[in-house]
Amino acid sequence: MSDYSRRGLSARKRTRTAAGDSTHNGPSSATGGGPICAARAPRATAPPNPFGYIFLIDDYSFSGGASPHALINVAGRKVVSDELDLRLRNKNVFDCQGKIEYNRKVQGGLLRTFRNPLGRKAETMMRLNVAIDGPVGAGKSTVADAVAQRLGILHLDTGAMYRALGLTALRRGIDVQDEQAIVDLCLGLDVSVSHEADGQHTYVEGEDVTGLIRTPEVSMAASTVSRYAEVRKAMVKLQQKLAAETDMLLDGRDICTTVLPNATAKIYLTAAAEERARRRWLEMQAKGMPDTFEEVLQAVKDRDDQDMNRKVEPLRQAEDAVLVDSTKMTFDEVVETILGIVEEKRNG
Predict the structure, then answer these.
(1) Which residue segments constitute the domains of the chain, with CATH numbers given?
(2) pTM here?
(3) What is the CA angle 164-165-171, rounded to 5?
(4) pLDDT score for 313
(5) How far is residue 165's CA from residue 138's CA, in Å, rounded to a whole number?
């Protein structure tokens, strides 16, 4: 069995997360999960600053629509707003009328001190968020499990959420090409994840489907349903909410570009199509699946084409993401390389 078929060990803390109801789009308990596409009630918008000086501390969503923005005003007070001038979107703190004074490691994370335009200081705890993007079969999930364990943080496999939706559509005989039918399914579907001793488990309506979502058929279904704007919008909001509440590593196909554009470290993990197909084929052989290498290779190429050419958030390497080509690297070499990148970015 390939090293890339190994599952990483557990993260240090066990948690179960699900989308909330219409007034709480955050993690729920194992007994209180709600539809994954439930909408969050909008936050009250902060009053305008009379001096015109506010600058960004943390922003958990750049994908459009109402989303929480943590800001500092001229009095040095932290405020939360649902609306942010479009000129500030996708900007970092240096572009927002303020500057970072210094970073200081404290128990529980990194304390970042800002100085606003009038010279007043404000502090905020910076979450350690690591983002990994890459094509199918690059080993993102297993590598991410190992990296998260070494860092002592949780790992959220975002692709599993789309796979769970795709699996359910196939099971219920819903055409994955029917966008409205898929959106309607998403609106009422209870998808949740939990972190167990052997890694992340994915549930649909309380059923553990972790072992059912890695087939080529489900992979293509997931790629198809992930093209739909309303589905992605719902998933992205949930993922951002989870990452804002705890230190976390997320992997997927639009984490660096959309979900966590201000992540501490961004990595684009890839490998040659033939190598990715070989790894996936070995995993399938270990499970007794009959697919030939040629079939798996074609499926990998088809998935690449669909992911990289979809209209909504196509797979691409973010400009500030570090490229890691694992074609000729061992599993352990990939993990150590990514840990080195995280350490450099964290202390930079």
Answers:
(1) 3-38+128-347 (3.40.50.300), 54-125 (no CATH)
(2) 0.61
(3) 90
(4) 86
(5) 22
